[in-house]
Amino acid sequence: MDNTQTPSRSELVRRASELVPLLQKNAAWAEENRRLPEDNIGALTDAGFFKLRIPTRYGGYESDMRTMSEVVAELARGDGSTSWTYAVWTISTWIAGLFPDSVQDEIFSTPDVRVCGILSPSATAAPTKGGVIVNGKWTFNSGSQQSHWNTNAAILLTPDGGHEPIMTAIPLADLEIVDDWYTAGLRGSGSVSTIARDVFVPHERVLSMGPVLREQYSSKLNADSPIYRAPLLPTACSTVSGTVLGLAKAAKEAFFERLPGRKITYTSYEKQSEAPLTHLQVAEATVKIDEAEFHAYRAADLVDAKSINGEGWTLEERARIRLDMGAVCQRAKEAVDILNTASGGSSIYSSVPIQRIERDVQTLNLHAVMHPNTNLELYGRVLCGLEPNTHYL
Fold first, then answer.
1. Which of 81, 131, 242, 387 is geometrically suited to a Cys-Cys bond with 189, CB 3.0 to 4.6 A?
2. Quick one: DSSP state of residue 259?
3. Quick one: pLDDT at residue 4?
4. Please, are residues 229 and 263 in contact by the beta-carbon 8 Å criterion?
5. Confidence class of residue 309 from pLDDT cuts 50, 70 and 90?
6. What are residue 268's phi and psi, to 5 degrees?
7. pLDDT tens-digit profile of 119-134?
8. Number of other CB atoms surrounding residue 245 within 10 Å
9. Does residue 260 carry a pLDDT above 90?
10. What percent of the chain lies above the pLDDT cut of 90?
11. Is the dihedral angle over the CA atoms 369, 141, 176, 34 positive or is it negative?
């Protein structure tokens, strides 16, 4: 049933802001237990956040990219792991909307369904009667222990000896969970590995990645929806950029919360707030956060504008979305590094949020698709008239 009561962007961002204290309170538990607390998932559900990328005919909101970016950033002010996992869920839910409508009927029959996903085709699929048999392992599968479905990339081995990248939709109940998420950052995201052992996937739950990367999607009922005119990679990149931006904002807030009453040990400064060094540090960090925000929202606004108008994408525009994401990561990390450095020795205690924020933002900067150097090189190649060295655009 179509939903005619889609909340406004400002309302959804307000709801995200109201969750920040809860997420901050539960962040240490999430890190210690390497998954999201059920309280966090319940709060996201109650706020309607799992509806943002569900088609309206299933009661979803079909929220635009700028709304997604702002909500994800706001959640990251509370906890990076919650924001990241939620971002992955929304991207994968959007991907579910690319499948044939009958598959969507199955997936979205679960209210507030949680769909996780992996874009790296690290498994294989062999043709069989009525579908494919999938075998292999996916690492970094964020939120999979608390998800209902998994949209997983794989390599289809064709009878003529060839291969083709595909996307599959698999119930989590069909996969084996490997609890191997012991990491320095984003520990609460529960990004464990999943394994498929002779999992049968029917044809209708298999998408060829070639057409998907050219915006040739299989859903007929979503064809006229602006959010389903968007390309896959710009959609994913714009979404996760919000997490990095929100972490930088969280670092600034955490620094200023501890600033009153702090001194600079082994100096004559009884108040850190009076030291010119501090003034330079907070000003420089703030400028970098502003720059990160510019890139995050420029990307989101471009996705929305082209989706609404049904415009095609140039190669440079696709590469620029990757550049924007890389710039968000780079500038946010620089800002967090400055604020972390200015936080003093007492900030290394696990009870002080900025040490966790530092590790989370460093982890995201190492993500293969998000790495600033990779994205700078990609954009530079395109500007110099060379072919991109990736299909993920």
1. 81
2. -
3. 52
4. no
5. very high
6. -85, 0
7. 999 999 999 999 999 9
8. 30
9. yes
10. 96
11. positive
Coil/strand/helix, residue 55? coil
Tokens of 151: 């949209």
Q: Which helix (H) or strand (E) holds 275?
A: none
| pLDDT of 1 strictly over 80 | no
Query: Residue 238's closest CA among 293, 310, 177, 285?
Result: 293
Tokens of 286: 């703030």
Calpha distance 190→142 (Å, rounded): 6
CA angle 186-191-195, nearest 5°? 165
What's the pLDDT tens digit per position in 177-188? Answer: 999 999 999 999
Task: Give me the residue label for tokens 């289809």.
Answer: 156
Q: Over the stretch 204-228, which tens digit does the pLDDT of each residue have?
A: 999 999 999 999 999 999 999 999 9
Average of per-residue pLDDT values in the chain: 96
Cα angle 322, 56, 11 (rounded to 5 degrees) comes to: 70
pTM over 0.90: yes
Please, what is the Cα angle at 117 between 365 and 241, to 5 degrees? 35
Characterise 261 by phi-psi region: left (phi > 0), alpha (psi -120 to 50), beta (else): left
Segment 8-31, tens digit of pLDDT: 999 999 999 999 999 999 999 999
The closest alpha carbon to 62, from 210, 219, 211, 203, belongs to 219
CA 196 – CA 174 distance, rounded (Å)? 7
The C-alpha angle with vertex 202 and arms to 157 and 200, in degrees rounded to 5, equals 70
Residue 64 has a pLDDT of 97
CB-side neighbour CA atoms (13 Å) of 189:
28
The CA distance from 61 to 9, in Å, is 11
What are the chain's domains?
9-113 (1.10.540.10), 115-209 (2.40.110.10), 230-383 (1.20.140.10)
Q: Is 108 exposed, middle or buried (0-12, 13-18, 19+ CB in 10 A)?
A: buried
> For residue 161, what is the enclosing H or E element?
none
Q: Which of 245, 249, 241, 244 is nearest to 339 (CA)?
A: 249
Q: Read off φ and ψ for residue 313, nearest 5 degrees.
A: -110, 135
Beta bridge partners, 190, equal none
Residue where the block lists tokens 């538990």: 29
As given in the structure block, the two tokens for residue 188 are 């609460």
